[in-house]
Every structure is written in C-alpha cells, then in structure tokens.
Amino acid sequence: MFPHQLNDPRAYEIAQALLGGFNRHFRLFRGTTAKAKARFENADWHGQQKAQAERIAFYDQRVGECVELLELGYEASQLPMDVWQQVKLHYIGLLTNHLQPELAETFFNSVCTRILHHSYFHNSFLFVRPAVSTEYIENDEPAAKPTYRAYYPEPGRLDQTFRRIVTNFQLKAPFEDPERDTRAVMAAVDRQMAGAKWRTNFQVQVLSSLFFRNKGAYVVGKIINGFHETPFALPILHGDKGLVIDGALFGEDDLLMLFSFARAYFMVDMEVPSATVQFLRSLMPRKPRAELYNAIGLQKHGKNLFYRDLLYHLRHSSDKFRIAPGIKGMVMLVFDLPSFPFVFKLIKDFYPPQKDTTRELIQSKYLLVKQHDRVGRMADTLEYSNVALPRHRFEEELIKELRHFCPSLLEENGDDIVLKHVYIERRMVPLNIYLQDASDAQREAAVLEYGNAIKDLVAANIFPGDMLWKNFGVTRQGKVVFYDYDEIEYLTDCNFRKVPAPRNEEEEMSGEIWYTVNKGDVFPETFGPFLLGHPGVREPFMKHHADLLDPGFWQGHKERILAGHVHDVFPYDASRRFARG
Fold first, then answer.
1. Measured torsion, CA atoms of residues 465, 467, 470, 471, in degrees rounded to the nearest 10
2. What is the pLDDT of residues 258-292, one digit of tens each?
3. Confidence (pTM)
4. Which of 250, 264, 380, 397 is the most exposed place for a label (fewest CB within 10 A)?
5. Which of 135-149, 228-242, 280-294 has the lowest mean pLDDT?
C-alpha cells in the first residue's frame, strides 16, 4: 500500500532530480538525432555511423549520473521504502503534462533498479505498469511541428502532392532530376492503386520527420482512400549528381523489412515518441510496440515494453522454459519458452579448451553488434540484469543445466529463478535444421541467402568468425540472419591469406597444419570442408558464392573499407528500386 500522506520533503526533491535527469537525456538524444539531417545532406557517412553508436550509450551515461547524484545528495540506497513509494507518487504528478511520459517512467525504473534490491521490483516502487496515458499527446505550442502532416490532393494532381511532400522536408542538397523521380513514384502509386476510385476522404499522411539510417533518408507515410490504407516509404539516396528517390515501398511487408529487428536503429527527430509509434503501428499492426520503440532508437523503453509483454504472456500461458532445440553452444546456454517467439541466452561460466575467450570479451562482442550497423543480417539483442521468473515454469533438466554451466548467474530465490545477466533474441529456425527438411528449391534459396548474409556483413566491416550453418537462423520472411556473436571481428582486423603450398610430400600428407598461423589470420579456402560436406549444399554454394572461398574477395573488401568506402546495403528488394537512365 502507498502511504496516505506525502510528508517526506526528500521524496519530492528526488522525484524532481529523476525527472531532471531524464529531461537532460532526452534533450541530448534529440540533439544528436536532429543533426542526422545535416550529416545526410553532407554525405557524412562515417559521422552518421559514429553518432548512431554514440547515441546508444547516452542512456546508461545519464542513468549513471542520476544514480550518483541521488547517492551523494540523499544516500538513496539507505532510504526507507515508504520514501521511495512517495517518490513514485510525486513523479507521477510531475508527468501529468509531459510529452514523453512513457520514456520518463522507464528512466525512473532504470535509476531505481540500480539503487533498490530486486525484491522491490514491483509496481509499488517501479512502473511495472504505465501510470500516465500516452493517448492523444501532442505539443500544442503554435510553433511546434505536428507528428504527421495530411495532404489532400485534387484528382489528377497527386504528382504535385508528392513533389510538395518531399520539398517540405527542406533538404539542402539538390535533387538530381526531381521530375524523373516524381514520374517514377507516380507510376509505382498507379500500379499499387490499380485504378481504384478516389473516395471523398482521399489523403496522404506523412510523418513530419525523415527517418535516417546508414546512407539513406526515408519518407514514411500512408495513402488513405475510403476504408483502404496503403503504407508506403520512399528511400532518398545520394546519386551521382544529386539526391534521388531510389524506389517505392508499399504495404506492411515492405515496411516490416525496412523496420526489421536485424537492422540498426533509425535517427528520427520527434518530440512525442508515443505519437510517432502510434502512427507506425497503423502502418505495421503486426509489429509489437516494443520493436517500434527499438527501431526509432528508444531501445531502453523497448526493453521495458518487452518485459511487460513477457510478464503478460507468462500470466496467460502454462508451458515451461526448456533447453532450446538444436546443437548446444559451447559458450552460451540457450533456452526458450515454446509459446513465446524468443530465446534466452546466458554466458556460461566455463568453456571447452578450443574456445579461448572470457565473459568480458563475449559481452564486448554483443555490445559491438548493438552499436554497429546490423545491415539486416544480425539479430538485435535485449540485455537484462536480475530477471526474476517463476521457478515452476522451468523444466528440471534446464535448472540442472543452469546450475552446472551458469551458477554465477543463477539465484534461486524461493518461488523465483533470478537470472543475473541474460540476452534475449527473436527465435529463428537454425539454418542447419532448416536445410535438413528443405526441398531442393528451398535448400538452394537458403544457401543463396546464407552467402548474401555473409556478403552483407562483409560490406558492413564484419567477419562472422564461426560461419557454420548452426550459427545462422531463418526468419519468417525467409531471410538468413546471423546470431552467434562470440567470435565476430571487424573485417579490417583480419588478415586473409592463401594456404601456403606444401614444401614436401611429408607436409602434403600431414593431417596437421604445417604453416604458421598468426593472430588474426583467416584462410578462406579452409571453409569448404566445414560447410560443403552435403552435395545438396555444395552445388548451390559453388554456383552462387564460390568467391567466399577466395582470399582475394575478403581482402578486396577490407582494402576498400580501409580506404574509407562505405558500402550500400539496401533494406528492400531490388525490384522496388527505380531504373535510372
């Protein structure tokens, strides 16, 4: 129960300090996000990559500052629990007219979970459930930019509307051929509408800010005609002589690829994130809100929403956590809940001799992936500490595995199992299992995708390290995604070599390596025996991706990256791109 009287003056001061910490965070977050437009206009791709990585660290920095402030000023960890209950009530009052209340609640949780023991991680002290509604929030100031703009074209003048939509973003770089691009957009819209009759309410709604990621800027909106809504996105890129609209994406499936969990977070300037997410959900109703917040760079609130979804699912299900199907990993213990489409991964306390690694090194690899451009080929991970799950929902075999492999991460606390550190990823079908049951056509398509996934990673300066089929998964859309990160390296840190010719018959017949291998050396020719034992796999691999066995392929990409080249990796199918003469 909450106390009836809010009578401790420290409680209000702490609530103000907490909100001040969040406001500082969001101000800095918006500042670096808003500069994405100038970086795009100037084709500053390295600056864009650097800003995307740095922005991810902002949140934990601000949380750490706030924890330190509260400990120094109030000895926060020593305060009675009734004071913390009062802090929460005061904080709710301060959020009444706030434009980002859901994010501020998550910031409150992040600070308090650093201070309070996990036995207090419930709704009396934290925002396990949201307390402030985000419905219909808008900044009512006259100069404020609305979340989206609505355009009402006259019949026969839709081309003028799309021209105005793009012009309204006021990009300072000139377009190469705006008339040509407008014709291409209109041709794509006409194909999509297929001669549908214009209804009275025909309109085009477009989010007021561009979505920036890598080398692209995206116009995101929807066409409304009667009861039919068509989501769309227009990618804008730098061409040879100026900006170009590169293509047109239509429908939920195209946008789900654009907003995939395997891609880097967008930079999009927004004052009311909940309104932006609400608009995006109208375009992609199958996309959970947690993943949409992640996609727009608010991954900490995405984590908060995901955890709420997990608790809700546990309340309405009865199956048990189990050891995940497939080949067991050497450094990670992986388990899942059959009814929930995610896997839980814990770093083991010890590893086989061939795995020369440490917990700190593995964590650094996962952080690298979080901060890097994932180019649609590396699954995003949600990282949690002190996750309490009901013990009766665990199979006994899994509990034995946890006790054996991860005792330092396990706390058995009465009716709960507390996991001190865990990664959570979307569940996919392991590629090795998929290939076992695939038809010849499916197998060839999967092998083609596997090679494309590696080449996309190479373009993003990532060497996967362990390229075995079991370390890749197949998504619902048939995309192949990498998810085992403990051996990844930057491509530019590797040295790709040909296997030296044996100097004599003894070396040629030897089952041991006769040549010197230095740290960072990679011999692509040696991939074949591990990957291509099955003829049904070898044939399509050699047909489509034989170059992956050639050191020259890898070394060439490495040299281009070292020379400053940033590769294009498109988050949409080539068929969506416009032909340009």
1. 40
2. 999 889 899 999 999 999 999 999 999 999 999 99
3. 0.92
4. 397
5. 135-149
Q: Taking a C-beta distance cutoff of 8 angstroms, is the pair 304, 383 a contact? A: no
End-to-end CA gap in the chain: 70
Is residue 190 annotated as a catalytic residue, yes or no? no
Nearest one of 425, 424, 446, 426 to 435, comparing CA atoms: 446
CA gap 287, 300 in Å, rounded: 17
Q: Which two tokens stand for residue 418?
A: 């507390």
- Please, what's the b/e burial string for 299-318 (b: 16 or more CB within 10 A of its CB; e: otherwise)? bbbbbbbbbbebeeebeeee
**186-213 in b/e burial notation, b at 16+ Cβ within 10 A?**
eebbeeebeeeeeeeebebbbbbbbbbb
Do the beta carbons of residue 280 and residue 292 sit within 8 Å? yes
Q: How many CA atoms lie within 13 A of 537 on its CB side?
A: 22
- From the list 209, 201, 98, 193, the residue with the least C-alpha distance to 152 is 201
Residue 85 structure tokens: 């209950």
Beta strands 462-463 and 489-490, pairing class? antiparallel
pLDDT (0 to 100) of residue 128: 85
E-strand spans in 80-145?
none
pLDDT surpasses 80 at 246 = yes
Residue 391 burial (10 A CB sphere; 0-12, 13-18, 19+): middle
Alpha carbon distance 185, 327 (integer Å): 47
| pLDDT score recorded for residue 354 | 81
Q: Is 38 left (phi over 0), alpha (psi -120 to 50) or beta?
A: alpha
- Return the structure tokens found at 374: 């994932």
Helix (H) or strand (E) holding 287: none
List 380, 456, 484, 486, catalytic entry: 380
Angle, helices 9-34/45-74, rounded to nearest 10 degrees: 170
555 token code pair: 């070394």
